[in-house]
Design a protein that fits this description.
The structure is a homodimer. By secondary structure, chain A is an alpha/beta fold. Chain A has a domain at about 5-40 and about 130-315: CofD-like domains (Rossmann fold), CATH 3.40.50. Helix content of chain A is about 40%, strand content about 20%. Chain A has helices at about 15-25, 50-60, 75-85, 95-110, 115-125, 155-160, 180-190, 200-210, 215-220, 240-250, 255-260, 280-285, 300-315; strands at about 5-10, 30-35, 40-45, 45-50, 130-135, 140-145, 150, 165-170, 195, 225-230, 230-235, 235, 270, 290.
Chain lengths: ~325, ~325
């Protein structure tokens, strides 16, 4: 059997882990990524794309392994100096990371679309897989919080460390955002075999993609199976505020809630072994469950989960 | 005798050396600088002010002593990484220097004028002397060269290392540039005793100041002596393209040429000891000559020349 052709939808750290696993299982022409840009923002005059960069650094082998984002062997001279000069230092930009943002700014300023800027950066890092922004139009995730009112994503996520209580989430600009030619082509690719929703935060990382009408429509009208990996393990998130957010949004912290949230855009959901008892509830949502170890600590874990995801997709393709 | 109150007009490295000497001779309330911004440009999206920064770093004791500009103990992680990513690296921005430009960008983006941004940076570096941009309006020195046609200053100076043959120099924007309230107040200060034109390149560093009509007018109508330090020593420049430029502009490389160029805005010119024989020619231009060692290698040299400059001003004040 030849390798399937896969389109992976992903956000930050968790998604990048499965992305790395998939990258080890598939030849470069068989894997493309569509990446959340709802976390993007401008900081210090630079265009920052956290999820795209986390995936880029991960696939390039340049990611800081312990934290899951940013570059390994990073230095902090600029930020430390900026701090001494009274500048904004709450968003931790390392020296090497800063160089990437400067390069992206330079590329965008020359008239390139974000998709083109990322293609150039992917080449510079010898990453052979297309890392496609979900749209070249700006989409900004904004949270309504009890403590601060309206908070742009990074102010919530980094500056306030997800502490504020979230009352609502908006994906500003999503309704008017279009598909880039590259994303449109990837979705319409007749050779496509499988769509994977990586185990990123559904509300913060995958929801912005689904809030773009032509992207949601393309997923709803898919002619290939779509499989998600559940980001919850035993009612908790491996990383990040998914579980806290579900409580605040009054959603039960169960795989069935994830299945319901992804209703219409997935056919199958991979649950962690700990959540085996939730399989029937997932099936009740009209989604086929599969059970596997989903916690990815080692590269081996990532590859194993990627293989399992591809195999599950194969069974759904029937 | 109490210390005189001095306004020093300056450009880059040579001017900053005398500036440091003056800073050692005068209390902070008796010395202010008006600094060339004709070399300023935007690079990598950041506002770069080379002459202001050279003076700032010099007065703060942070300058790279050997090269005379940039910061000592500098690191180059960002630029080296940017270079590997295919970005522009011809303009050498160190990591610490970059932090300054990011901070200035942040300040300007919040609505501050350049003068205010420099005041904030001066405070951050504990420099007690006002470092006033010659104008808050943009002025850009542009050279017409035989080899490249029109060249913005930094492209000529840094990228092409002053190699192109200069046919003409323009100070774009100078005709429409206004005085900041701070420069206007410094020029009109009734307590002012002396104006010093530092030994910077007359055509590239001081000329942009003189090209601003209200600044030239204020200098022409001065009620205190103005003294320049000749940037030539034995027909050569201590640093930079002054002598080469004079040849290309068909101006004899003599102190008298400098006296003539500064006609109407100086009363006295300090010549180097090597140029003692040119004193009469300077006097013939209507400018009082003084002779002193002008090459500043050590801090002692700088202080000695500053003392000599202040004493010369005192004799001209009569």
């Amino acid at each position: 059997m030849s390798a399937p052709k896969v389109l992976a939808l992903t956000g930050g750290v968790g998604g990048a882990k499965l992305g790395l696993g998939l990258a080890h299982c598939l030849p470069s022409e068989n894997l493309a990524f569509v990446v959340n840009t709802g976390d993007d923002f401008e900081h210090l005059g630079l265009p920052i794309s956290p999820d795209l960069d986390t995936l880029l650094y991960t696939l390039a082998g340049e990611v800081h392994e312990d934290q899951g984002w940013g570059r390994r062997d990073e230095t902090w001279t600029v930020l430390n100096t900026l701090e001494r000069l009274g500048g904004a230092s709450w968003f931790r930009l390392g020296d090497k990371d800063l160089a990437l943002h400067l390069r992206r700014r330079e590329t965008l300023a020359s008239g390139a679309r974000l998709t083109q800027a990322m293609a150039l950066l992917g080449d510079a890092f010898s990453v052979p897989f297309p890392l496609l922004p979900m749209s070249d139009d700006p989409v900004r995730t904004v949270l309504t919080t009890r403590e601060f009112g309206r908070l742009p994503f990074q102010s919530y996520f980094v500056r306030e460390r997800c502490a504020p209580t979230v009352q609502a989430i908006a994906y500003e600009g999503a309704g008017a955002a279009g598909l880039s030619p590259e994303v449109a082509a990837a979705l319409a690719d007749p050779a496509l075999d499988l769509i994977v929703l990586c185990p990123s935060n559904p509300y913060l990382s995958i929801a912005p993609l689904l809030a773009i009408p032509p992207l949601r429509k393309a997923l709803e009208r898919r002619r290939v199976p779509a499989v998600a990996v559940c980001p919850l393990v035993g009612g908790a998130a491996v990383k990040g505020p998914t579980a806290k957010l579900m409580d605040e949004l009054h959603v039960p912290r169960t795989p069935a809630s994830i299945a319901r949230y992804y209703g219409g855009v997935i056919d199958g959901l991979i649950l962690d072994e700990q959540d085996r008892s939730h399989a029937d509830a997932v099936r009740a949502e009209g989604v086929t469950p599969d059970v596997a170890p989903t916690v990815m600590l080692t590269l081996g874990d990532k590859i194993t989960l990627a293989q399992r995801t591809l195999a599950f997709g194969e069974t759904l393709r029937g």
